[in-house]
Each structure stands twice: as structure tokens, then as C-alpha cells.
Design brief:
1357 residues, alpha+beta, disordered N terminus
Amino acid sequence: MRMGFLRGNKSHSSQDSNYQRNPDTGVYERRREPSENRKDSETLRRESETLRRDSAREERRERGEKRVNSAEPSPKMTRSRSRQRREEPQETRSTSRRRAPPPVEEPPPMPRNSQVPSFDAMLNDLDDMFASTSVQTSRSSDKPERTRDRPTFRRRPSTNEKSPEPERKVERKTEKVAEAIPESPKSPIDGHLSELEKIEMEKNRKQLERLNQERKAASRREAEMVAAEREKRNQQDRERRHRESGEFSLLNRQPPDESLLVDDYVKALITVLRSDRTVSPLPEDFSTPEGFSGWRQSIRIPLQDMLAKMLKYRHLVKKEPTSQPPRLFFKIVSARGIVSKEGRLRDIYCNIDCGDLEKLRKEKKRNVFQTDTIKQTLDPVWNQHLNLEMQSSRDDIKVEVWDRLKDHFLGQVIIPMDNLMRQCGRKDFVSSWYPLEPRESKYKDKYVGGEILIEAALEEDKNKGGNSFEQLQSKMDSFGVDPRALFRTLLRGCLLLDLGIPRDGRQEVLSEESVSLLKVWGRYWTVAEPAQLILYLEIIFSKFRGESVPVDEVLKTFHVLHHCMKTKGWFSSKETKRLLTILEDMRDHLRTQVTKYRECYPKNKPPNALDSSILLLRMIHRFPIFKQAHPELPDSFRDELRNALTEACIARFQRFKELNTPFDESNVEAVVDGITKLAEMISDEIEQDFKYFQPAFAQELDIVRLTAGVHLKFFVLTLEDSGDLLSSDVAVKEASKTVFSFYKRVKLMNDRYAKLVPGLTTSTSGTGFDVEGWFSPFIFKWLQELAKKTIVWVQNAIKVDNFESISPEEEDLLHSSSITDVFSAIYSELEFITDLEWSNSVQNAYFFQMFAKMVNAALENYCEQIQESKEAGGGLLQTATNLLGGRNNGPQDIQNQSCVKLRNIQFAMSKLKEMYKMMNVQAISKTVKDHRKSMAILGKKSPAAMAADKAEGITGAFKVYVSYGENIKPINKNGLSNPYVIVRVPEGTIVPPDEEMETKKKKDDDKPLQPTVLTGSQCDLVRTRAISDSLNPSWEETHQIILPPVTRLEVAVFSKNLLTADEVAGTAIIDLSSGTRLRRKVLDYQTHDLYVELEPQGRVLLRLTMEGEQEDVDFWFRRTNERLIRTRDDLLRSLTAKMVPYAREVILKVVKENEAAPIPSKSFLASLTQAVQYSEFTAANVSIHTPVSDKEVDEALDSLIVYLEKNLETICANLSQSMSQEVIKRTWDEIVAILESVVLPPLYGTIEASKRLLNKRQLSMVDGVLLALKDFFHADGQDLGLDMDILQSRMYLGLKDSIKLYFVPMPKVMREYELSFREGVDKEYLLRLIRFNAEKSKDDKMNDWMNITLQKRKSKN
């Protein structure tokens, strides 16, 4: 269809395109096709096709010519074209053989009525073409080169090339677009149709230009992407090879780049050499002593100056230009040891390639020469040569050996040109066997082996004159100067030069110029790689000692040395001796730096320097040469390093102690202050190790643990020497603040040790860092003194309290000041106990138990005092007055003080709960329980176990007070002892199992629970601290213990030794068996003094007290909470009791007013003899059958509602929301109970004779009052209004049901109760209603049913 690609034009059918409208007749006629119009359109189309084909053909011709021109001309010497073609890349070979492209045939003309594709369709085709091109290009970039049979895939284009594949695809697409141009249809209107065709052709031309631009942009993007990916992979390969090689710049295999040796660099190096003042040469720099003496007599200049002259003549003095480049006589002589296949002989020939092989490979150019083929042999002899013109010293010569018969690769040799020329320059002629090596791994060569003999010589230049450089070198050789001395001098000069120049981001210390220079001269002097590496290590370490280079450079060099040492025979014996001397020097220097790491590396700076030094020291220790030369060293480097660091740490502690020891050691304040400062210095040093130096030593040892272990060991000794100060009465009474301050600081240090070095405090020196053991006697005494003051604080707080809210506007401050003062004192004590951070869980639980008992006493005292107030007394007096029939002066209003007291109790309960969680009482109680359980005391015992206990062993909770000792046996050399007491049960004491656990065990398993046997440290009950240097020690320690069933206790006094095992100073047995006087005494729960006589001498005073109550922290908290709950309930009842009497009065009054009025008696005698008769009307002359209206109910309850609103407002203003709702709920329950008592009598007891059944009006009044008060207490569910679920309680629903069934016949009510009783629902209110009717009606059957039902109900319950 024509013009379909223009947007906005409608499409026409093919029939419409073949007809046109006649303007004269208005009738559609068949369209005519003038030949002129068709000729114009076809001419335009063919011209565009011709231009497109010429452009495509020109591009193909250019690519073909470029490939043809890349072929190399034949070398001067004999060359094998077949072999050359075999080695050429596939693409080049296929391109060179490719014929010229055949002429492009013109496409057949399009049909006359063919449709022109729309612009959108052409865009879609173009997108598909580019998508396929990009996919095919990305695939081709990842695949290797293909042969001529698969020309679609090409080699990956370089950064300067364009991928040919997208070009061809765009060309094909261009052809498609060009061929899509239709012939111009016939039209009678020539001018109009030709103009349309011109527009279409112009648009198609622009489309072709746009496609060409997009093709070029796509090719450019493709080339850039491929180049970037290739560069990325190359960089990764270089980094990987650098990491795996373990080499540094001097040992890499790349040839030296002499183009870097510019004149400025050489001149600078010469200046550095001449300014070097190092003494040289030395006698060891010569092969013979005569050479050294001859040098001193004739030359008399340092090696630096001689080397500077050699550099000048070698690199700065210009040589006369020669007429032609140097020529090399190169001869292939023979080969031997060629690998055969299945024992067959081979037809062998050689290919020789010369030049920059890498460059030629990239440019796909080769200079290949070939020898003759020696047939049927494995030891061919060629004796063929060629003359090579040397273009550059960086060129290489590659000789490949092939089998012409099987086309097998047999090996290759690559010889650097500079090495060959250097050898020829020295010996004039070179003849050497070279081993044949395989190619790259991707070729998978199988038949490589043998050697090839090659001879070479330089063609002499007859015009060459004398050379000053050669003369200097000959002088050196004549004196026997060691080339290694020359190389060392040159290396030192290069380092001095490079260290004085900024690196500008380079990794190596040596610059590229220095590396190239050292390679050139190292090869010229034939200094072996091991010697170069040792010389570099020696010089770089000397620079490290002078702080010219970092330790990382030494470490990197040592890594290379360690890597090279893995190669067997790489070092000679002379080089090994020299290396050993360097290693010993390095080890001494590094050991000093590592042991004094704080001074040498403050704050571990520079970064990683200490790590590298330790690693380098470890490598030296593990170096085979060094380890063999020093067999006395430990096998483990960690042991050596630990010993050195331990010695240094001990020296530091002694220096700290000397600085902090006071002159007057009897001064308590000075001693404590000195120990505190010592602790701070130790802690700071350990923290520095943890913060800065721990990562550096992490691979070898834990430096923090080592430092802490040494310091802690000696710090414990210092503390134990001053331990008597902590347990004295003077410290408790007069210096408590000082002791507590000292405790916190020592505890802080202990926590730092425990945090930095877990487990260290229990593993160092006997009992370890026992802070609690030193301070526990003082803490116990202080807590006992503090508990006495708490009751006084409570009493004083209540005396000054007026029970007014602290801040009535704030919800959290509605309580008074007394409860705040009490809990402030309690929390201060709790905070103090918590701040102790006692690690002994059992002692810590005992501290909190004492605290909980103190809290219980304080709050019980507080509750008792607030309940004995005047207001409470007035309430009781008013109640007594009412009971005695006194006159009521009206309703009583609730006072603010009552609400504040209740608020105080609520505040106390919340604080107690908060304190319970804060203290984690459950965990504390579990600790006590586990401790008791471990001693097999907690829980019920079986009868047999109890009988055994009564008959033999004694058990229970005891308090053991260890007072003092007398005449203890001397153990130390100074005639004194360091005594401490241990009280324990006998070894092998049996603890019977818990009965509850045994019962559970039997349910799970048939095997009975076995008793626990105590052994070792499990038998210890009491262990006191050690008193230094005393025979009459005073411990004054209290211990709470739980005794398993025992008949005796063992008491032992030991003398503590730091280095050896503790010695026994005396032993004794406490007999607690049945029938003994001591057993009878301790069972009376009183404190008894017991003097224990020791063997062989001395005695100890113990005070034993048996504890009867097994209380714990949870017990005292429960007891305190129950006391607060009882007080709260009492206060709530007192508030409700003030409102309920008036409510009862109002309700009984309104019910009384609606009862039937009695009929007046006719005579006085009749009123005495006849029963009272009641009318059908109330006293207000209202029928008792008429229900009351809502208005009447509201009027009757008006005063009660006003009273309730007033008092409930007071309650809500002074109580919390929860407590206010609790008061409202209790008031509602009391009102419902009042109404229930009006309707129903009690189930048991005597019913009042005056109580009558309610009439319908009274019952409606009760129902109205119940509904009205329910709405009042509900308050539409807003604010403090009660929910319907609370209002419609079980009592309320029973009352409603009773009102509903009040006038129902009793047999029906009885049946309903029987049905509910069978269903398990006990509707007691129905029984009360039935009983009421039975009593008033005097119905015997109903009474009998009632008695039977009550019996059934009783038996069921």
C-alpha cells in the first residue's frame, strides 16, 4: 500500500490503489500506468541500489586488500612456505586464499502492486538486526578463531579495529531496506505521483544514512567493550602471576629495558656513587690477598669511583656509528635424544625465528627460516648456519624442531639475544647444548625431549678502535675483584638514589631504571641470582636499621628468599655462610625491637610494622639454615617469643612497684593509695596491649593474657601482704569510704582482666584474684549495721507526712512523700549492693536475702502505721455506734487522705514489682536452690533417709563464724605461718537423692536415682582467707553452710605457699554423732562457741549456729507483697464501707415505700389476736399491681446518685484509673448484693418473720433501681465507666433471673433447677427463691423437696 508509513494516513485496499476517480464523470475507472512515470521511479531506485552495491563492494575490496597485504615476503634464507602457512593464524591464511567476491546480482524488480513497508516496521526490523548482531558479536568475542570453512566467526577485534560481523549484518539489512523500495505505480496524474515517489525516495535515503551511522556507532561500542574486557583480563592475569611467582623485580624473567637508562638517570647515579662514603674495597672483595694489596698500591680509589667511570664509558660516551648493525653467525649443528613415537625414526628439520617475538606474534608477522630435513634418525646433524643482523638487544632467537613425516612438534629453544651477544663478546665463540622445551600448555605437546647443539659468534668490526670501558673491566679482572662486590656497590648506589626520590605510587623500592641497570650489569658480571638476592637483603636490612626503608620491604625480600630456598641446590655453600651471618644480625635486632614494642612501635605505628617484624623474626627462627646452626633454640617460635616477653614484663612490673611504694608502710591511706595507683598502671598497660598490640601478636600468642598473667601474679602478692587492713574494725568503722573506694578500683581492675582475658583470674596463683575473699568480711559487717537504720528511716518518714499528694495534677505523683522517702532509702541500699557486682553467686544471693528481709520489715512497719491513723479509728467508732443503735448523722464522704494512703500502697506494690524484676529474684533464688541442691539438703527425703539422718547424721543450715586461732604451728622459714582454715565433710560423704526427683525418675525410668558422693573440693564447706606471717591469726569471718547428713566435720589449718603446695599446720575432728553433747547443743538453734584443738598444736575458735528457717529472697518478696495486698484490700474495703451504708438506706427506703399498706384493725383486741391484713394499695394509695415508672425510679434514686457522683469523683481524682475502677466495681458489687438480699433471703439460716414476699410494684422498683444504677456505673462505656461484662456479673444475672421467675409457680421453678442441676449448673438463687416461698407458704412437700435437694447438693460438692 502506498504512503502507509506516514502517520495519520489511512490505509486503502489493493482494489482502491488500482482505481482512480474521473473528475469529469465522478466515476472510478481503472488506473493507467504511463511509461514515463514508471521510468522515473525505476531510475531513482536503481541509482540508489547501484550506490549501495558500489559502497559494499568497495568495503569488501578494502578488507581483502588489507588481508592480502599482511602477508610477509620470503626471508633471505631458505624458507618453507607450507610450514609458514601452517604456523600463520587461521584468519590470515584463509583471507590470503580467499578469492575476490563475486559480483552482486541485482535483485529482481518488485511487483507493481507491492506495498512499501511502514516506518515502524523498518524500525522493528532494525532493532531485531542489532539485537542479533550484538548477540552474535558477544558470542564471537568469547570464542577462538575459526578456519576458512566458518567465515562467520572472526578473531576478537582489537581496540584499533572494528568488528567485521556487525558491518556485514548492517549491510545485509541495508540491502533489505533498499530492496524494499517499490516501483512507482501507474497514475494518470504524472506530476502528483512523481512528487510522492520523490518524497518516499528522500525518506529512504535518510533512512540509509541513519542506518549507516547506527552501524558505525554499534561497531565502535563493540570494539570499546571488547578492548576494556581484554584489558581487565590481562590485568587480572598479571596480578595473579605476580602473586604466584613470589619474585621481585630483580629476579623476574623479563629482559632489561635499556631504553630506560637515559643520560640524566646515569648522571644522577654517578653523582650518588661518588658521594657514597662507604669504605671499599675490603679484603673479602678480592679473590686473593695479592689483588687487594695491588689495588691499594696502584689504583687507590674506592669501588664507587671506579664503578662511576665504568658507567660513564658504558652509557654516556657515544660510540662511532657503524656502517651496518652487528651481525651474528648462528649455526644449527646437531640434536640428540629426540623422543620417538613407538620406537619409529623421524624426519627432522628446524624452524628459526628471530626478532621481537611478542611483537611479531601480535602483528601476525614471522621471520621463519628452515633447515634441511634429516630423514630416519633421532640424532640429526645439520651443520647449517645463517648470518643475522641484530636490530635490538631485546630480540630473541627461537629454534623449533619438527617431524615432517608426522607433523609432530619435538621441542623449542628461545635464546635472549643480549645473553648470546654478551657470551660471544667474552669468549668470541659460543658452543652449547640447549634442552628442548615444550610450548604453552594449550598445545599439549607429547613428544618433546632431547637437546640441540647451537654455535654462535659475532662478526668482528675491523674499524672498531679501543674502548675505555673494556680497559676498566680488564683492570678489574686483573686484580681479581669479586663481581659480587661490584654488584653490591652498584645496588647500594641505586637504593640511595631511589630512596631520595618520591616513589609516585610505585610499589617497589627500586625504580624501573635501577632494575634495568642492575639486570644489565648483573648479567654482564654473571652474578648469580642467589648472590643478587642475598646482597639485596643485606643492603635493604642495613637501610631498615637506619630507618630509611620500612620493615615491609625487608619482609617482602625475605619472602622471596624463602620461596627460592625451596628449590634444591639454589644456594651454594659460600652464599649460605654469608646468609647465616645476615640472619643472625637480623634476629638480634628484631628481637630487641619486639620485646620493647611499646618504645619502638608506640600505639602500634607505623601500621603493620610490628606484625611484619614478628613475622620476619618467626621466619628467621624457622629458616632451615638458621635452625641448623642454633640447635639450642626451642623448637617452637612461640615458646621463644613468650619467654622473651615474660622477662620484659616482669622487669616492667618491678619498676612500677618501686614507683608506688610509700616510705611509711604503716600508713593505711598511703598503702591503699599506692596499691590503687599500681593497679591503674597495670590496667592501663593491659588496655594498651588490648587496644593497639593484640592484633600484632595474635598469630603467635595472646599478648594481653601474657601481660595480665605476669602482672596479676605479682599484684596478688602485693595485695595479700596488705590484706589485714581490709578486715580490721578500724577499716569498717572509721575508714569505710576509703576501703569502698579501694574496693571499687580493685574490682574495676578485676573486671578489666576478666573482660580482656576470660578465665585468667581463676588460673593465676592458687586462689586467683579473689577480691570478694578480701572484702567479704567488711561487707557483711556493713550490711548488718545498715539494716538497723532502715526502721528508723520509716518511722521518721511517716511522722513528717501529711498524706497529701505530691502533685495532684500529675498521674504519677498522687502519692505522698513518706512512701517516696522509704523507697529512696531502700533503692540507695539496693544500688549499693548492686554496685558491688559480687561474682560469688552464693554470697551475692545472701546479700540480697538480707536486703529483702530488711525491705519486708520496713514495709510491714509502714503498713501497720498507716492503718492505725485517726481516720481509721473514727471509722471503727462510727461502725460501733451504728451497731449499738446510735443515731446516724448522715452519709459520710470519702476523704483525700484515704485515697492517698491507698495510692501509697499501690505505689509500693509497683516499686516492689519493679525491684523484683531489677534484682532478677528468680535467678537469685535459683542460685540458692542449686547450691542447696548440690549439697543434697533442699527437698523432702524418703522415710528411710530421714530415719538415717535422725539416727546418725546431722543436717541443716548452719552459720559458721571463724573467729581466731592460737598457737598455730610455724611453717615458714621465718618461724611464722600464713594460716587459713578449711572446714569440710569427710571424703566420700553420701548425699541421698531428692524424693521428688526420685519419683520423677521412676516415672521415666525403672532405674532408681543414685545418691551423690562428695569428693575433692565438693567436700569443702568453709575456706577462709590466708593471714600472712602470723601464729595467732584473727579471721573474723562468717560463712553460711548447708550440712549434708554427716556425723563429723574435718577442720584443717593450712599455711599458704605461693611456689609450692600448701602445708598442713594442724587438723582436728568435730564429732557430731548421735548421743554426743555437742550434737545436743547445736540442735537448740542457739550460737555456741567451739574451741577446736588442733594436732599437733594450737586451737581455733568456731561459733556454730543452726538456722531453722530456709528462707530466700523470693520468700521475703512474696511475704512483703502479700502484706501490701492485705493492706490494699483493707483500704479498699474502708472506702467502699463509707458509701455502701447510705446506698443500703436509700434502696431499703424506696422498697419499703412501695409495700402494701396494712388494713387498720377494727378493735384493739383484734389487733392483738388476729394477723395483720394488707390492702392492695401502698401507703401513697397506689395499687401494688401497678409497676413503677422510670421517672419514679429516677426521683427515688436522685439523692443516692448525687452522693455517688460526689464520692466517686473524689476517688477518680486521687487514685489511678485501675484502682478507681476497682473501687467502682466493688461498690457496684455491694449494691447488687444489697438488691439481692432484698429479693432473696439467704439459703441457710433463719428468715426474719417480718420479711414478706415482694409485690409486683416492689419487684418492679427493684428491677428499675438495678437497671438505673447499671446505667450509672456503665456511663455509656466512657472514661472510668465499667464494661458490660463486669456489670453483668454472675450475681447480677442471677438477680435478673430471680426477678423474672419471682411470680412463676414454684413447681416449674423446681423443675428448672433440677434440669440445671443435672447439667452441672448450680443455680443457687433458685433454691433461695424456692426456700423463701416454702417458708412463707408453709408447704410441707416443698420443704421436703428442699431438704432432699440440699442433701444431694451437699453430697455432690
